[in-house]
Structures are given as structure tokens and as C-alpha cells.
Design a protein that fits this description.
With 216 residues, the protein is of the alpha/beta class. The protein is built from eight helices and eight strands. The longest helix is centred in the last third of the chain and has 14 residues, at 152-165. The structure holds D-xylitol-5-phosphate (DX5) and zinc ion (ZN). Zinc ion binds at residues 8, 33, 35, 66, 175, 195.
Length: 216
């Protein structure tokens, strides 16, 4: 199966958001990755429902909302109102992860769980059958434009093996520092979805950058 590309809005030009969305609408990307940061779970603040509502009006891609916030259950209903394909919460930010997964699914939305680089993939094995998407962070979350952490490739491989062993259809998304230079290795390790911020929006031609990631 071919890989899906999820450009991350964080790296877009916020002074020309509509134009950026039009570019993505004409691209091979299938998901728009939206990084919500609270300045507490991660040391940065990005955007929230107001911006996502505006973007959702013009975006033809499915929305993929990545909540880098503490106690995300408080906001899941707000983000569910945009009818995204996935909402991902961080394993490290959920005291009752099983309940958070059920809560996301109660809105008919795909439940995603993101894990930081240091978090073992085995932390998710007991609930893997309930998860639609695992987002493996390949940088420490909080900022775009960071360098891919190579040891996360082993985590992708281990998760792919476990998904196979449990006969599941859980998707593996890889987020952070994905470029044309490492996309093939990330895909070979077992990724289904590549998140790409800087390597798409800072490219001379984002459409070609998306195509190159797609064909990697
Ligand atoms: C990092 C975010 C990423 C980020 C990726 O905290 O979760 O989605 O936007 O950006 P790049 O592709 O530039 O590393
Ligand atoms: Zn993200």
C-alpha cells in the first residue's frame, strides 16, 4: 500500500493560510496535520479551535489533529466538532488513556495516540486493538524544523511487528524531521503516514516536495 502524506500546518505561512490550503487541495496529500500546543505539555503555544475552524472551511483533505496538551479530554468535544479523521492524544498526557481513547471514538472519530521519543511502544500494546492510529514522534514535540531522531526507526519496526502479531489494522504515523532524505527509510521501517512540515512548506515547490515524499 502506498504511503500517505500529512503536511503539518505549523510550518505554513500564516499570513497566507488560504493560499497554503489551496496548494494542499491540489496536492497528493491526503491529511492535514494540525499541531495544537498548550505551552505546558510542550514548551510552545501554537493554535487552537479558532484557526482550525477557519482552515476546515476550505480544506479538502481529511483533518488529523495532534493534541500536544495536558489532560486533553477537556477539549476533545471541541475538536471533534470539526469532524476530523483522527484526533491524537499523547500517552504521556493521559492518566486514563483507555478512557480517552473511548471518548474520542464516541464521536465517531479515529482515535490516535502519540508517543514521545523516549516512550516505549510497548506502553501501547494492551490498548493497540482499540487505537486507529499510533503517532510515533521522531523529534521531541513542540517545534517544527527539528532533526529526525534515528533510534525511533527501531520503534516503528517494533510497532509494525506487534500490529502484525495482533492482526490489527492500526496505522503508524511518523511525526518530526521527515524529509526526502529519510522518507524511504521511515517507510521501510513500517510507516503508513508521514507527517511533514518544513520539508513541504519551506520547499521551493510544496507540490513537488509532497510528490517526492509520496514516491519515496
Ligand atoms: C512537532 C510537531 C510536528 C511538526 C513537524 O511538535 O508535532 O508535527 O510540525 O514539523 P517538521 O516536519 O518540520 O519536523
Ligand atoms: Zn504533530
Amino acid at each position: 500500500m502506498s504511503i500517505e502524506i500529512a503536511p503539518s500546518l505549523l510550518a505554513a505561512n500564516f499570513g497566507a493560510l488560504n493560499q497554503e490550503i489551496e496548494t494542499l487541495n491540489a496536492s497528493k496529500a491526503s491529511l492535514l496535520h494540525l499541531d495544537v500546543m498548550d505551552g505546558s505539555f510542550v514548551p510552545n503555544i501554537s493554535f487552537g479551535p479558532v484557526v482550525i475552524e477557519a482552515v476546515a472551511k476550505n480544506c479538502k483533505l481529511d483533518l488529523d489533529i495532534h493534541l500536544m496538551i495536558e489532560d486533553p479530554d477537556r477539549y476533545i468535544a471541541d475538536y471533534a466538532s470539526f469532524k476530523p479523521k483522527y484526533i491524537s492524544v499523547h500517552e504521556e498526557a493521559c492518566r486514563h488513556l483507555d478512557r480517552s481513547i473511548d471518548y474520542i471514538k464516541s464521536f465517531g472519530i479515529g482515535a490516535g495516540v502519540a508517543i514521545n521519543p523516549h516512550t516505549p511502544v510497548a506502553n501501547l500494546f494492551t490498548v493497540l486493538h482499540k487505537i486507529d492510529l499510533v503517532c510515533i514522534m521522531s523529534v521531541n514535540p513542540g517545534f517544527g524544523g527539528q532533526k529526525f531522531i534515528p533510534y525511533t526507526l527501531k520503534k516503528i519496526e517494533a510497532l509494525r511487528a506487534e500490529i502484525k502479531a495482533q492482526c490489527l489494522h492500526t496505522k503508524i504515523e511518523v511525526d518530526g524531521g521527515v524529509t526526502e532524505g529519510n522518507a524511504a527509510a521511515v517507510k521501510a521501517a513500517g510507516a503508513d503516514i508521514l507527517v511533514a512540515g518544513s520539508s513541504v512548506f519551506k520547499a521551493e515547490n510544496p507540490l513537488i516536495a509532497i510528490e517526492n515524499l509520496h514516491g519515496a
